[in-house]
């Protein structure tokens, strides 16, 4: 298949995954923490592919890499906390993305009565359970049923755009 440059109309080489990632990065997204306690231990990951799905029933989704070693643990949880990280929580995102460390040793968090983990100072949060997991390429689309939620209207969200963290201008 020939691919054409959108501005010049001339043929150009097909894209690779590095280019795809770069172009995906042109779409700004929020950053979430998906976390729960499993066997009494908190586990979590950062996900920038969070979106609302349905009002009735109340559903949201996140996409998780099939190579994630954290997701198989989280998938066993009764409830998952989804925290929409606020503009001052870049550190939390970095910690939740780092392998081989105790991700919760230096994070402020709380556990819901059913085991979801919420990151404190988040701009919004949801308590969810796994509704359905759909394999999609090299990721899983995880549909989550919302059981409870809240918002801190004073906290602005952290935004991921162009492979960097940004803040909304006020």
From TrEMBL:
Record keywords: Oxidoreductase
The enzyme's main class, written as a single word, is oxidoreductase
Classification via InterPro entries: Flavin_Rdtase-like_dom (IPR002563), NADH-dep_flavin_reductase (IPR050268), Split_barrel_FMN-bd (IPR012349)
The UniProt entry, under Pfam families, shows: Flavin_Reduct (PF01613)
Protein EC: 1.-.-.-
| Ranges of residues in domain Flavin reductase like | 24-167
Q: Entry's SUPFAM superfamilies? A: FMN-binding split barrel
Which GO molecular function entries does the Swiss-Prot or TrEMBL record give? oxidoreductase activity
* Family, similarity comment: Belongs to the non-flavoprotein flavin reductase family.
Q: What is this protein called?
A: Flavin reductase family protein
What species was this sequence derived from?
Branchiibius cervicis
């Amino acid at each position: 298949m020939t691919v054409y440059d959108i501005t010049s109309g001339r043929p150009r080489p097909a894209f690779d995954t590095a280019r795809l990632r770069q172009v995906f990065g042109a779409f700004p997204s929020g950053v979430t923490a998906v976390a729960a306690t499993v066997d009494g231990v908190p586990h979590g990951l950062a996900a920038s592919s969070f979106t609302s799905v349905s009002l009735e029933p109340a559903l949201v989704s996140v996409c998780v890499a099939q190579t994630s070693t954290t997701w198989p643990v989280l998938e066993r949880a009764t409830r998952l906390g989804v925290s929409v990280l606020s503009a001052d929580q870049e550190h939390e995102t970095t910690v939740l993305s780092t392998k081989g460390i105790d991700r919760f040793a230096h994070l402020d968090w709380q556990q819901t009565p059913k085991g979801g983990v919420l990151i404190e100072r988040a701009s919004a949060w949801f308590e969810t359970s796994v509704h359905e997991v759909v394999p999609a390429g090299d990721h899983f689309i995880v549909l989550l049923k919302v059981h409870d939620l809240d918002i801190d209207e004073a906290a602005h969200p952290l935004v991921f755009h162009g492979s960097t963290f940004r803040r909304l201008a006020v």
